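Hypothesis: this fold can be encoded by more than one sequence.
Test: take the structure tokens below, design a sequence, compare later.
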């Protein structure tokens, strides 16, 4: 084992972290108490009781925190994986389902909510991506870690970057028998240590004023072996992860992968790696080591078992102060909430109390003055004084001081809403706004104030997804059957990962090789309010109204995904076959379905273009027919015009002929020349000509 730090130096890390974070842990614990309703300190509680005030607790922190927790519950972020290259993109959907599969195996959604709750209240929550040694469970494991058991470099990066954070440790309580089961070779040492140091220890506490020297440091580590009063043997070992920088030789490949070259491997394999690499470089890189110890007993020490050389912890933070220490929502509400409790308690005390002023010798026995005071403060009090002394007794109602206390109380309640962002509109209380738009803007203002918390949550979920991807590629080396659900169509199919098949020339190739490739983790932003969710749903409904029948089933599936409809998965399971999604799509890959949808859209566009062309041709033909009709009408009009001219010419000719006949009759009457005489004259002329030519008549 390579040991670049001594055990004492590692123990110093733990001591340093606990000493520096002692004040922060106390404040975080107080924040948890405020959420739980324990908002009076012991000193304030005793003072109120001594003053005759009944301490009341009005927990305004509880609804503010629950607003955040409820928003996270109904607006889950979705972790999707995107490939960096075209080859990686083909299997990115499968990697998304692989991450979702790991999350489902360990109820990851609930673990994220639990860590988010820790980030909202004490300020810090932690998850871990590790290995499950149980062969009956999925190898890649997600675990929740209690924030009280966690510690890290107080001078480093709180987001646990190896380049900026020197160490992180986890110190849970464990039964001695369980620890012996994990490390059987240390059985006797652990039992001897437990018997030797058999005393109680505060959970994560350190003695105030402890001097940092070797003797007190070792004793402090030994004090972490504890036993409780019931005889249950429990110890608190430390599991610490720290970063070292080491120089190594690396082979870099064209696809972006890299492999460290060590000289303890097969020389032929090493030669092939060097020949296939794009370049071989020397570099100093950070590496993660881990050690588990209990006091002076080292249980395990070596390199991290994880390929990614990152800390296996995922921090969830609410806010970070100027010292990079986390804090939650109650931190800025504690003062106002305590003031509300004190003022309400004081106001109620004033409302029911009276001030009694009496002169001396109002009663014969001075011991009865207390009786006068008590009677005056009863609802049905009865006071008897000497005759003529009635004006010597003055009873003042303290209710007149009630209103100023209530006014200040209401001001503190408004300040809580302003500081937290959980205004009356967001909480659903009666609002001073009258229009829906004003209420929505007020809610959006509250969401803007709370946005940093949800932004930090998305950052943590991105790191969670990246660690899961790394462990999937590291651990899923064999064949594995995985159910894949297409997010667009909702279709389900079974994918055979790392399937060994014979290639075209007899070689063995891997199909759906999930161990290779580069991927990016993308965390979607969920709708911040139900109003935004409803807007998206209404937008999809409008698309359904205007979309072709082929697209409607997929839009309805997307609408179901963002809806809050109870049992929507069971409902969609029954509706999908009716919509034609299941049966048609379940035996095809998502890429084939997308291609089919694209082809359908292209065919629809072509059909629309064809219909447009047909309509254009019909319109053109109609225009040509109209033109012919116009030409025919023009010809008919011209024919009618010509016929009218002929008629006019005939009438004129008849008129001329009538005039000619009239003139001819007049001439014949004067000369005696008629048509009959003319005919005879013509015949005579022809006879004479024929005879002259030697013919016969």
């Amino acid at each position: 084992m390579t040991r670049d730090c001594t055990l004492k130096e590692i123990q110093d890390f733990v001591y340093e972290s606990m000493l520096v974070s002692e004040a922060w842990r106390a404040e975080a614990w107080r924040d948890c108490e405020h959420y739980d309703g324990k908002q009076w300190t012991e000193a304030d509680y005793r003072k109120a009781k001594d003053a005759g005030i009944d301490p009341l607790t009005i927990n305004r922190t509880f609804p503010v925190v629950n607003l955040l927790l409820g928003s996270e519950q109904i607006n889950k972020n979705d972790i999707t994986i995107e490939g960096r290259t075209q080859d990686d993109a083909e299997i990115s959907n499968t990697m998304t389902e692989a991450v979702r599969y790991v999350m489902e195996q360990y109820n990851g959604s609930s673990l994220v909510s639990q860590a988010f709750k820790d980030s909202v209240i004490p300020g810090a929550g932690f998850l871990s991506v590790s290995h499950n040694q149980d062969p009956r469970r999925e190898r890649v494991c997600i675990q929740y870690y209690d924030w009280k058991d966690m510690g890290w470099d107080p001078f480093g990066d709180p987001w646990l970057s190896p380049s900026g954070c020197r160490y992180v440790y986890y110190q849970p309580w464990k039964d001695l028998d369980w620890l012996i089961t994990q490390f059987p070779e240390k059985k006797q040492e652990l039992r001897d240590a437990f018997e030797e140091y058999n005393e109680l220890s505060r959970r994560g506490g350190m003695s105030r004023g402890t001097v940092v020297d070797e003797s007190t440091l070792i004793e402090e580590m030994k004090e972490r072996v504890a036993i409780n009063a019931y005889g249950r043997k429990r110890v608190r070992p430390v599991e610490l992860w720290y970063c070292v920088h080491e120089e190594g030789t690396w082979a870099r490949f064209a696809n972006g992968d890299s492999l460290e070259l060590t000289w303890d491997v097969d020389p032929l394999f090493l030669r092939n790696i060097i020949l296939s690499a794009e370049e071989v470089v020397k570099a100093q890189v950070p590496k993660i080591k881990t050690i588990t110890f209990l006091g002076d007993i080292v249980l395990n020490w070596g390199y991290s078992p994880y390929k990614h050389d990152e800390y296996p912890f995922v921090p969830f933070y609410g806010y970070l102060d100027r010292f990079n220490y986390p804090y939650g929502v109650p931190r800025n509400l504690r003062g106002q909430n305590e003031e509300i409790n004190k003022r309400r308690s004081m106001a109620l005390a004033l409302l029911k109390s009276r001030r009694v002023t009496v002169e001396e010798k109002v009663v014969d026995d001075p011991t009865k003055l207390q009786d006068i005071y008590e009677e005056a403060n009863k609802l049905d009090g009865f006071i008897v004084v000497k005759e003529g002394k009635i004006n010597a007794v003055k009873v003042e109602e303290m209710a007149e001081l009630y209103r100023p206390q209530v006014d200040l109380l209401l001001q503190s309640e408004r300040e809580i809403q302003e500081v937290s962002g959980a205004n009356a509109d967001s909480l659903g209380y009666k609002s001073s706004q009258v229009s829906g738009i004003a209420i929505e803007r007020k809610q959006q203002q509250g969401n803007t104030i709370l946005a940093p918390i949800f932004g930090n949550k998305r950052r943590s979920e991105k790191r969670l997804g990246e660690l899961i991807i790394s462990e999937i590629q590291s651990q899923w080396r064999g064949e594995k059957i995985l159910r894949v659900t297409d997010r667009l169509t909702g279709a389900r199919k079974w994918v055979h990962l790392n399937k060994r098949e014979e290639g075209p020339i007899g070689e063995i190739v891997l199909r759906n090789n999930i161990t290779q490739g580069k991927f990016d983790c993308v965390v979607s932003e969920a709708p911040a309010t139900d109003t935004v969710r409803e807007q998206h749903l209404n937008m999809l409904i409008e698309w359904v109204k205007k979309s072709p029948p082929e697209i409607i089933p997929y839009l309805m599936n997307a609408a179901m995904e963002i809806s809050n409809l109870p049992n929507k998965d069971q409902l969609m399971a029954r509706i999908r076959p009716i919509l034609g999604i299941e049966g048609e799509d379940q035996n095809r890959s998502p890429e084939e379905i997308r291609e089919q949808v694209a082809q359908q859209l292209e065919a629809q566009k072509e059909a629309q273009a064809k219909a447009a062309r047909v309509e254009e041709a019909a319109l053109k033909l109609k225009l040509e027919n109209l033109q012919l009709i116009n030409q025919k009408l023009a010809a008919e009009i011209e024919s009618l015009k010509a016929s009218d001219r002929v008629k006019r010419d005939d009438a004129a000719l008849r008129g001329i002929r009538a005039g000619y006949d009239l003139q001819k009759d007049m001439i014949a009457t004067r000369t005696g020349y008629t048509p009959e005489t003319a005919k005879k004259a013509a015949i005579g002329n022809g006879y004479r000509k024929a005879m002259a030519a030697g013919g016969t008549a």
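The CA atoms of residues 601 and 686 lie 100 Å apart. The first strand starts at residue 79 and ends at 83.
Hypothesis status: open.
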